[in-house]
């Protein structure tokens, strides 16, 4: 008789023993991936319905992105910004044009791009708007998620993200998400920006009331305040359009991008804005060793090229309609509510049945990976290369989990 040795338990034990416990992962140890599928160390296949929180919009190891990365690995990978390299200008131009903005500032992680937007907005406030020194205020939304730096958690309303990390950075005013009157009331002569996610991902894929984003745009224009859209999770095709804010026909003053911009290969983030805004920065005032490195730019250029085709936005809209129809059909059968746009959904599971975590554990046992948030909500965000069959399969597994 032969005994089969499973590698998962040891890999999980190593991870548990040797790393800080700042995450609570599902007990799955991924070894390989392609498209919408991952394979664990024991050869078990799973449909990836989280897609790196939208960092994998183009799927795992998209051939065009992998080819761009390979080609760049054979040429030059890092110069730092002390020199210019031959991938830099093309990437920045392509991304600026995709955003319809004059220029971009590339960084690495999403949080760094948010920090960049905050710094630029403050400097714009002092040097262009004429706000008195140290007085700049930025309006943000309750239940926001913009990253994990000390400044960003300073304006988080999630106790897990914030508690014990003070002293906090001042200069932020929190208003309820989707409440236009509250935004209006919060604006003062010192307000330099309104920073919001066009759809709140971490909060449970919350779509604001129709007209809210357009209303914020009007208020910002009226009061000479910058509108900053954090499209790190919602952007780059996820909702069926290039940016989630496009659904309301709104153009912010600054786009903050990350996640899928790196094609699931390297961390690439950026801020895109017009010269009147980003032009306030001078040499030495901001930067990052790895920001805009050749490998990042080569991959990012290919990401922009993929988005220019419109194929992924179209897939997300079309398959998203199928996903949402399938999820709506589960309302009353264990699902209480469904929100989202395109291939992005927040699904509230009946708490009497199970928690979101339990739902995700049971889904994983059935070969579908998803992530819970806030008690009974699960987030679904498959790669945009997912097929109709994959979608139907995942929906069938969710239905089976809910039947118990
Ligand atoms: C809307 C939003 N902003 C910012 C971030 C932070 O990005 P990163 O984890 O790359 O720092 C995230 C990450 O989930 C996000 O969803």
UniProtKB/TrEMBL annotation:
Pathway: Amino-acid biosynthesis; L-proline biosynthesis; L-glutamate 5-semialdehyde from L-ornithine: step 1/1. Its EC number is 2.6.1.13. It is an enzyme of class 2 (transferase). Signal peptide: none annotated. GO terms for biological process: L-proline biosynthetic process. PROSITE patterns: AA_TRANSFER_CLASS_3. It comes from the Bacteria. One of its GO terms (molecular function) is ornithine aminotransferase activity. Keywords: Amino-acid biosynthesis, Aminotransferase, Proline biosynthesis, Pyridoxal phosphate, Transferase. The keyword Amino-acid biosynthesis applies. The lineage of its organism: Bacteria, Bacillati, Actinomycetota, Actinomycetes, Micromonosporales. Pfam families: Aminotran_3. This is ornithine aminotransferase. Belongs to the class-III pyridoxal-phosphate-dependent aminotransferase family.
């Amino acid at each position: 008789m032969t005994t089969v040795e499973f590698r998962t338990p040891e890999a999980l034990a190593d991870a548990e023993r040797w790393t800080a416990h700042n995450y609570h992962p599902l007990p799955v140890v991924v070894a390989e991936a392609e498209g919408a599928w991952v394979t664990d160390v024991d050869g078990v296949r799973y449909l990836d319905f989280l897609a790196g929180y939208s960092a994998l919009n183009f799927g795992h190891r998209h051939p065009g992105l992998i080819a761009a990365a390979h080609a760049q690995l054979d040429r030059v990978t890092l110069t730092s910004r002390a020199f210019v390299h031959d991938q830099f200008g093309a990437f920045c131009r392509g991304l600026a044009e995709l955003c319809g903005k004059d220029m971009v500032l590339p960084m690495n992680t999403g949080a760094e791009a948010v920090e960049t937007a905050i710094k630029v907005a403050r400097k714009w406030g002092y040097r262009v708007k004429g706000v008195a020194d140290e007085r700049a205020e930025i309006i943000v939304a309750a239940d926001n998620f913009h990253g994990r730096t000390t400044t960003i958690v300073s304006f988080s309303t999630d106790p897990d993200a914030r508690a014990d990390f003070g002293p906090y950075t001042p200069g932020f005013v929190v208003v309820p998400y989707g409440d236009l009157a509250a935004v209006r009331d919060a604006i003062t002569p010192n307000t330099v920006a309104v920073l919001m996610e066009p759809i709140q991902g971490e909060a449970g894929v919350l779509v604001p009331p129709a007209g809210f984003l357009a209303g914020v745009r009007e208020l910002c224009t009226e009061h000479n305040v910058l509108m900053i859209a954090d499209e790190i999770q919602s952007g780059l095709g996820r909702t069926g359009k290039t940016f989630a804010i496009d659904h309301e026909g709104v153009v912010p003053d600054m786009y903050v991008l990350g996640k899928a911009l790196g094609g699931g290969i390297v961390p690439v983030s950026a801020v895109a804005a017009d010269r009147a805004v980003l032009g306030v920065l001078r040499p030495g005032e901001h930067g990052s060793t790895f920001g805009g490195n050749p490998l990042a730019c080569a991959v990012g250029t290919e990401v922009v090229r993929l988005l220019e085709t419109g194929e992924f936005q179209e897939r997300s809209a079309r398959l998203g309609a199928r996903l949402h129809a399938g999820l709506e059909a589960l309302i009353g059968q264990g699902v209480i509510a469904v929100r989202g746009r395109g291939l992005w959904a927040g699904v509230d599971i009946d708490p009497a049945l199970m928690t979101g975590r339990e739902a995700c554990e049971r889904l994983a046992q059935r070969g579908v990976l998803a992530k819970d948030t806030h008690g009974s909500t699960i987030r679904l965000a498959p790669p945009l290369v997912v097929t109709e069959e994959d979608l139907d399969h995942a929906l069938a597994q969710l239905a089976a989990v809910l039947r118990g």
